[in-house]
Design goal:
It is built from 16 helices and 15 strands. By secondary structure, the protein is of the alpha+beta class. A 5-stranded antiparallel β-sheet has the order 2-1-5-4-3. A 5-stranded antiparallel β-sheet has the order 7-6-10-9-8. It has a 5-stranded antiparallel β-sheet with strand order 12-11-15-14-13. Strand 9 and strand 10 form a beta hairpin. Helix 14 packs across helix 15. The longest helix is centred in the N-terminal third of the chain and has 37 residues.
Length: about 475
């Protein structure tokens, strides 16, 4: 154990009072324990170490003041201190009335000739709290890392399984960073020589200048753009769509290639041209991925969403235009995953310039390598009139009232809720009094005249001459 080089000269003749002050100052808690483990005296720094119940420790065994798993450590501390001058520091826990244990780091030293020990304790709650926060931070980092790894795996799987040629291009050098299998087959015959080359060098000579111009335009404006070029030696025309994405501190292009004329159209022998039908459909049609990201849409949807081109809508989440952000899309996707289809889901479609359209949404799931959700949105403003679907008819139940959330203002919602509850109470009172309106008015705390006014308002009863007589009497 560490000692002073000349304790008598440096410390002088310390008496018991000075030694007690020195011990109490050096530790958060100090105990004087006899050879039997009985606490004879103690000192606690109340400013730094508020340990409730320590006043009753005098005359108790030290081992009885700690938790069950700490008892062997107390026994080892006492045994080591009695047999030698050197003892190891051991962490023990003291129980409290609140249920939270207080961790203390103890070391013991035998003093005097009466086989007594002095135990020095350090409060570990601050260190324990920091350790706990460190563990929680590490666990959070591990969860985030695992989540990012899963996201990356899903991204790469979707990227490689896509039937459309897709490329990721460096925003500064225009070199191909990644290409899926479809792009490799089309531009490079399936080899890996495409990666690392400038994109303009991988296409036909007559298309390279148009490709350079397209990438420069997207880089300058920051908005997606597209161009039609001849990419392959067979003379086939392709639509090249480029979007600018931020990746860490750099920018990359996501390039999508679509051969013109291939599309989803079927030949006359195979059946009707469903792509052309979808484009001409007066109802809004949207195709999304499993997470609600727009893959394709028809002009009717672009008109309701007030989006100029399909390219600007593609890649956005459908939640951007639905009336109750974070609610409607989650409900729709949940039902599609569970049931495969949704019918007549009422909501509001909000345009980018502030317009609002009452719509009914029906949706279904298409089967394939990756699930695709198809949404059909019908404008129902003509059905309900300019006042809206809920302006003329008061909701008759709590379920109908819940459908109004997100469509009408809170003021109107509160008024309609009040009307609904008032009508329900009047109906209950009339039923309990067997249609005795005088008793019902008394039960509701209304005058008969007020009750008759409300009956007319809610259309609950057609009042006869007797009602009018009662009204005039009141």
């Amino acid at each position: 154990m560490k000692t002073f080089a000349a304790p008598r000269e440096s410390l002088g003749d310390l008496n018991a009072e000075a030694a007690a002050r020195l011990i109490a100052t050096a530790a958060d808690i100090a105990l004087v324990v006899d050879a039997d483990g009985m606490i004879r005296d103690l000192a606690v720094d109340h400013r730094e170490f508020a340990l409730t119940g320590h006043e009753q420790w005098l005359g108790r065994h030290w081992i009885d003041t700690v938790t069950s798993e700490s008892r062997p450590k107390i026994e080892a501390l006492i045994s080591e201190a009695m047999q030698s001058e050197r003892t190891r520091w051991r962490q023990v826990n003291h129980p409290t009335a609140t249920g939270a244990d207080v961790p203390v780091l103890y070391s013991a030293l035998r003093v005097g000739f009466e086989q007594r020990l002095v135990a020095f304790g350090r409060d570990l709650r601050t260190i324990s709290s920091l350790q706990q926060r460190l563990i929680e931070a590490q666990q959070k980092l591990e969860r985030d890392y695992t989540r990012l790894r899963h996201l990356e795996t899903r991204y790469r799987l979707l990227f490689q399984l896509s039937d459309e040629p897709l490329l990721v291009i460096d925003g500064a050098t225009d070199k191909v960073l990644e290409a899926n299998r479809a792009a490799l087959r089309m531009l490079d015959g399936g080899s890996r020589g495409l990666v690392g080359r400038a994109f303009a060098q991988c296409v036909a000579d007559e298309a390279s200048q148009e490709i350079d111009r397209l990438l420069a335009t997207v880089r300058a404006t920051g908005r997606a753009d597209e161009a039609e070029v001849v990419l392959t030696p067979d003379g086939g025309r392709w639509k090249v769509s480029a979007s600018l994405l931020r990746q860490e501190s750099a920018w990359v292009f996501l390039v999508r290639l679509l051969r013109l004329g291939s599309g989803m159209a079927l030949t006359a022998e195979q059946g009707p041209d469903w792509a052309a039908i979808a484009q001409a459909q007066p109802d809004a049609l949207v195709l999304t991925s499993a997470d609600g990201t727009v893959l394709s849409c028809n002009p009717a949807f672009l008109e309701l969403a007030e989006v100029p081109t399909e390219e600007q809508a593609r890649g956005e989440t459908l939640d951007r235009w639905l009336g109750r952000p974070g609610v409607d899309l989650r409900v729709l996707l949940s039902n599609l995953r569970e049931h495969g289809s949704v019918r007549l889901f009422a909501t509001v479609l909000r345009g980018d310039y502030g317009s609002e359209t009452e719509v009914e949404i029906s949706a279904c799931t298409t089967q394939g390598r990756q699930p695709v959700y198809a949404f059909s949105m019908r404008d129902v403003r003509r059905r309900f009139g300019a006042a809206g679907p809920h302006a003329a008819v008061m909701p008759q139940s709590a379920e109908q009232l819940g459908e109004l959330v997100g469509r009408v203002s809170l003021k109107d919602l509160v008024r309609q809720t009040t009307d609904m509850i008032e009508k329900m109470y009047i109906e209950a009172a009339l039923e309990m009094t067997r249609d005795n309106r005088a008793s019902a008015a008394e039960m509701l705390g209304l005058s008969r005249q007020s009750l008759y006014v409300k009956l007319r308002r809610y259309g609950l009863r057609e009042l006869g001459d007797s009602d009018d007589t009662d009204t005039s009497e009141s």
